[in-house]
């Protein structure tokens, strides 16, 4: 499911960039190949660890997203 969501958002962002950067703000993730792979892995392994260990997802997802430059 994560891969499908990331791919759909990437296609939407490609259309926005194609038509002059409509509705793209500075804090948006730019879906290049590196960021796409990171997000898919984060979604899969983060969800797996959070579910297996009973952690809140925010304790896994927030540090990684902050590292990628996304503001809180």
Largest sheet: none
Strand content: under 5%
Provide the number of structural domains: 1
Order of helices and strands: HHH
Structure characterization notes:
By secondary structure, the protein is mainly α. The chain has one domain (2-67). The chain is built from three helices and no strands. Helix 1 (2-18) runs antiparallel to helix 2 (33-53) and helix 2 (33-53) packs antiparallel against helix 3 (58-67).
Present the secondary structure layout:
Blueprint: H1 2-18, H2 33-53, H3 58-67
Helix pairs in contact: 1-2, 2-3
Summarize the structure.
With 72 residues, this protein is mainly α. It is built from three helices and no strands.
Describe the structure using short key phrases.
72 residues, mainly alpha
């Amino acid at each position: 499911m994560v891969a499908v969501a990331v791919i759909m958002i990437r296609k939407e962002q490609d259309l926005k960039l194609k038509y002059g950067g409509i509705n793209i703000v500075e804090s948006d993730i730019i879906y290049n190949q590196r960021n796409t792979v990171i997000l898919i892995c984060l979604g899969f392994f983060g969800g797996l660890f959070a579910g297996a260990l009973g952690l809140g997802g925010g304790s896994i997802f927030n540090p990684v997203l902050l590292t990628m430059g996304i503001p809180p």
